[in-house]
Amino acid sequence: CGPSLPSFQVGDIALSEHLHLISRPGLYGLSTPPRGELYAVMDGQIVRIHADTAQVRSILRMAPQILD
User: Fold this and answer.
1) What is the DSSP letter of 24?
2) Which pLDDT belongs to residue 2?
3) Which of 1, 32, 60, 63 is the most exposed, fewest CB within 10 Å of its CB?
4) What is the pLDDT of residue 4?
5) pLDDT tier for residue 3 given thresholds of 50, 70 and 90
6) Are 38 and 48 in contact (CB under 8 A)?
7) Contact assessment for residue 11 and residue 55, using Cβ atoms and an 8 Å cutoff
């Protein structure tokens, strides 16, 4: 069994009840997100979302735990 696929895809709108906004990207090995975007953990995946619309821009990798 390989890793499970996320239940969402790029272009979906991230629902707040499934979302943890990352306040300290460095703890996850990430740099500052591009202007107008945020990093978040959603359903165990680190994602990059649009700050205003919450649209998923990219799915980066698994996040086995919340670090911030």
Assistant:
1) -
2) 54
3) 1
4) 62
5) low
6) yes
7) yes
